[in-house]
Amino acid sequence: MSVIAAQPGELVLSFEYDPATPATWVDMWDNDLVCWLVDESGAAEPIPAVIGKLPPVRTETAPLESPQWVTSWYGGIIAPDLWRGSLDDFFTWLATANGANRRLRGNFMSPAVANAWQVWADRNPERVWPGP
């Protein structure tokens, strides 16, 4: 296992889906990325190490796309093997990908991510989940 240091400002956005009906809601939060844990054999995907915790492993959600986490760096999002783009477009994708009709809740500490979330939420109030 190799350890690769994170780039300055690199974050991990984590997602917890409704365990009963993963297509219903997503609770989102951000954590600072410390490093990547990389299996040199390629047998396992790289794993982010964060300050805090990663979300619980999600239940199967096929055909809906439901990443456990994505990385954010300089305002862009990378969902490995699934999606790349802006934060604004990512929130829309997460809510609607493959026919999903999810409501989202953002719990972000990063000012850039929190601001992007607020702008998106103000434009899409019908897609905002107020939480339990």
Average of the residue pLDDT scores: 90
Q: How many individual helices?
A: 2
Compute the number of strand runs: 8
Low-confidence residue ranges: none
Largest sheet: 8 strands, mixed
Domains, number = 1
Q: Helix-strand pattern, N to C?
A: EEEEEEEHEH
**End-to-end C-alpha gap:** 39 Å
Describe the model.
The protein is α+β, with helices and mostly antiparallel strands. The chain contains two helices and eight strands, in the order βββββββαβα. It has one domain. The chain is 17% helix and 36% strand. Strands 1, 2, 3, 4, 5, 6, 7 and 8 form an eight-stranded mixed β-sheet that branches. Helix 1 packs across helix 2. The mean pLDDT is 90.
